[in-house]
Write a structure and sequence with these properties.
The complex is a heterodimer of chains A (about 300) and B (about 190).
Chain A: H1 2-80, H2 82-95, H3 102-115, E1 119-127, E2 138-148, H4 150-162, E3 168-176, E4 188-198, H5 218-228, E5 243-244, H6 247-259, H7 272-275
Parallel strand pairs in A: 1-5
Antiparallel strand pairs in A: 1-2, 2-4, 3-4
Helix pairs in contact in A: 1-2
Chain B: H1 10-70, H2 72-93, H3 98-108, E1 113-121, E2 124-131, H4 134-145, E3 160-171, E4 176-185
Antiparallel strand pairs in B: 1-2, 2-4, 3-4
Classes of the chains: A alpha+beta (about 300), B alpha+beta (about 190).
C-alpha cells in the first residue's frame, strides 16, 4: 500500500513537473511573445508613427504662441504710444492719400509753381493711369504748362520732390520761348506730368498673423523723420478749377505734340496770361473760397490743342 | 587525453542542449516582452508630455488670442500703417530726382551752348539747341560722358551712359551750329538720393 501511494505521489509530482515545465518552457514564452507583438503592433508602432506628427504640432503651436506673444507685446506698445502711432498714421495718410483729392493736388501743384515763381499756362488732370511700377496704386495725373526761368524750373522740381503729398514727374519737357512778351516772365516754356498715386487701404484684423511694422526700428523712425521734414501745403484754394482730360484726349494731345515739336517753342496765343491779367496766387495769399481761375470761359485749362472740351 | 574522455551519453547531451535552448528561448521571450514594455513606456511618457505641452500651449494661444482680439482696432490701424509705410518706401526709393538731372546737364554744358528744347523720358533725354561752334557741341557730348567730370554731383559721375548726335548743322544766318542729341542716362542713379 505505501509503495502504491508512493508511486501515485511520484506520478502526480511528475505530472506537476511536466505542467510546470510546459508552462515555463512554452506557455510563458508564447504569451510573452504574443503580448510583446501585440504591444508593439497595437501601441508602440502607432505611437512611434504619431510622435513626429505630435512633435510637429507642438512645434507649430509653439511658433504660433511665440508669434502671438510678440504680437501682444507689439500691440501693447502701440497702445502705450497711441499718440505717436496716430501721428505717424496721419503723416502717411497725408503723403499717400487714400482718395484722389484732386482739388487739393491741383492746389498743391499751383502753390508749388507759385512758390517757384512760375506762371501757369495750363493746368489739367486725368484719372486712372496706373503708376509705372506695376503697383497697386491708382494715380491722378496733373498736366501743367508753365513759364519760368531755368532756375525756377529746377526750384520747382526740388519743391515737387520735397512736397508732402507724394508726386513724381514721369516726364517733362522745356523749350526756350522765342516770344518777346515772355521775356519778363521767364524764358522757358515747360510742360509736365505730375503723377500722384493714392491708395485706399482697408485692412482687417487677422489674429494669428504678426504685424509687420516695428515702430521702434531705426529704419521706421528715420523714414518717418524724412516724411515729417517734407513741405506740407495747406489747402488754401478749395474751389480750384482745372479741366479733366480723358485718356484718349491725352494720347491725342501727346501725339500731336510729338508730330509738332516746334509747337512747344511758341506758346499758344490764348494763354491765361494774355486773356487773364490776374496774377496767379502765391502761397497763403489766396482767399480760401476764391478760385485762382476766373469763372466762365477763361480757364487756364482751356485751349491748348485737344485739351479743350 | 583523459580530459577528452566523455562518459555522458550522446542522447543525454542532446537532451541537455534542448533543455538549455528551451530555457534560453523562454528567457529571451520574456526579455523581449520587457523590452516591448520599456519602449511602449517611453513612447507613452513622451507622448503624454507632448500632449500636456500641446494642451498648455493651446491655453496660452487662446489667452493671447483673446488679448489680441481686445485690441483689434489697434491691429487694423497698425496693418494700415504698415501697408502705407511699405508702399511709400517703395515709391520714394523709386522716384527719380529730375532736379539733379537738370543741374547735372546744366553744369556739364559749355557756356556757349544754348539748349532750346529738352525733352525727358525715363532713361532718355532729347536735347536740341545752338552752339557757337562744332567744338562746343563735341565738348558738351564729352562732358556728358566724362565719368571724371569735375564740378558735377559726385554721386552722378556715371549718370549719362550714351550720347548720340543726331544732327549738327551750321546756320549761316545766325552764325551758330544747330544740334540735336539724344542722351541715355541711368534712371536708377537719380533714385533714392
Amino acid at each position: 500500500m505505501p509503495e502504491e501511494t508512493k508511486n501515485k505521489a511520484s506520478g502526480v509530482e511528475n505530472t506537476l513537473a511536466k505542467i510546470k515545465d510546459t508552462l515555463l518552457n512554452f506557455i510563458v514564452p508564447l504569451i510573452s511573445i504574443l503580448a510583446a507583438v501585440l504591444i508593439l503592433s497595437l501601441y508602440t508602432y502607432p505611437a512611434y508613427k504619431e510622435l513626429p506628427i505630435k512633435k510637429a504640432e507642438l512645434s507649430s503651436k509653439t511658433t504660433l504662441r511665440n508669434t502671438l506673444s510678440k504680437k501682444v507685446d507689439a500691440l501693447s506698445k502701440l497702445v502705450d504710444f497711441r499718440n505717436v502711432f496716430d501721428e505717424n498714421l496721419a503723416i502717411v495718410n497725408k503723403v499717400l492719400v487714400p482718395e484722389p483729392e484732386v482739388p487739393r493736388l491741383l492746389d498743391q501743384a499751383s502753390q508749388i509753381a507759385g512758390k517757384a515763381g512760375m506762371d501757369i499756362d495750363r493746368l489739367s488732370y486725368s484719372y486712372g493711369s496706373k503708376g509705372s511700377d506695376k503697383s497697386i496704386f491708382e494715380t491722378v495725373t496733373v498736366s501743367m504748362s508753365v513759364k519760368s526761368s531755368f532756375e525756377q524750373l529746377v526750384l520747382f522740381m526740388e519743391l515737387v520732390e520735397k512736397a508732402a503729398r507724394y508726386v513724381s514727374v514721369p516726364n517733362f519737357r522745356y523749350s526756350v520761348s522765342t516770344k518777346a512778351e515772355d521775356a519778363g516772365q521767364g524764358s522757358l516754356s515747360s510742360s509736365f506730368s505730375l503723377d500722384s498715386p493714392y491708395l485706399f487701404v482697408e485692412s482687417s484684423a487677422v489674429t494669428d498673423e504678426p504685424i509687420g511694422i516695428d515702430m521702434s526700428s531705426k529704419e521706421f523712425t528715420d523714414f518717418m523723420s524724412m516724411l515729417k521734414d517734407l513741405d506740407y501745403y495747406d489747402f488754401v484754394n478749395k474751389n480750384i478749377q482745372a479741366e479733366e482730360e480723358k485718356p484718349e484726349e491725352k494720347e491725342e494731345d501727346l501725339e500731336k505734340k510729338e508730330e509738332k515739336p516746334e509747337e512747344a517753342e511758341t506758346p499758344v496765343s490764348n494763354t491765361p496770361n494774355e486773356e487773364n491779367p490776374q496774377p496767379l496766387p502765391t502761397e497763403g495769399t489766396q482767399p480760401a473760397n476764391e478760385s485762382i481761375f476766373p469763372s466762365g470761359d477763361i480757364s487756364p485749362a482751356k485751349p491748348k490743342a485737344n485739351t479743350t472740351q | 587525453m583523459l580530459s577528452d574522455v566523455n562518459l555522458i551519453p550522446q542522447e543525454e547531451i542532446i537532451e541537455q542542449k534542448k533543455t538549455a535552448a528551451v530555457k534560453s528561448s523562454s528567457i529571451i521571450s520574456v526579455l523581449f516582452l520587457l523590452l516591448a514594455l520599456g519602449i511602449s513606456a517611453y513612447f507613452y511618457v513622451t507622448t503624454s508630455k507632448i500632449d500636456a505641452d500641446i494642451k498648455r500651449t493651446d491655453n496660452e494661444i487662446e489667452n493671447f488670442r483673446s488679448k489680441i482680439k481686445s485690441m483689434s482696432d489697434v491691429e487694423v490701424a497698425a496693418r494700415n500703417l504698415d501697408k502705407k509705410y511699405n508702399s511709400l518706401k517703395s515709391l520714394f526709393s523709386s522716384r527719380s530726382k529730375y532736379s539733379l538731372l537738370l543741374k547735372e546737364v546744366q553744369v556739364r554744358k559749355p557756356s556757349d551752348v544754348i539748349i532750346q528744347n529738352l525733352d525727358t523720358k525715363v532713361g532718355e533725354i532729347s536735347i536740341s539747341g545752338t552752339s557757337g561752334s562744332y567744338v562746343s557741341v563735341k565738348s558738351f557730348i564729352d562732358n556728358l560722358l566724362n565719368k571724371e567730370f569735375d564740378g558735377g554731383d559726385s554721386r552722378l559721375k556715371d549718370l549719362f551712359v550714351e550720347v548720340s548726335l543726331n544732327s549738327a548743322n551750321f546756320d549761316k544766318s545766325s552764325n551758330t551750329v544747330k544740334f540735336f542729341i539724344v542722351v541715355s542716362y541711368q534712371d536708377g542713379r537719380l533714385q533714392g538720393l
